[in-house]
Amino acid sequence: MNRRRWALLLIIGLIISAYGVPYTLLSQSYAWTGAFLFWIGFAVAAILVNIWISSQWRDPR
Fold it and tell me: TM segments (predicted)?
């Protein structure tokens, strides 16, 4: 698989997890710490994916 497909799969996976995890896995958790830890991990993953994708950009000369 090339890098473009990996990037697309990572982005789709992040979007699905952003909607799926809070409404499924964390729906029965009434403590705010579970959601807080999930969103911290999600933010780190999104930042890393953005760095990885933008590091591949080149000037098309």
Answer: 30-53
Q: How many CB atoms lie within 10 A of CB 57?
A: 7
How far apart are the C-alpha atoms of 47 and 61, rounded to whole Å?
Answer: 28
Structural domain boundaries of the chain?
3-55
DSSP letter string, 1-61: --HHHHHHHHHHHHHHHHHHHHHTTTTT--SHHHHHHHHHHHHHHHHHHHHHHHHT-----
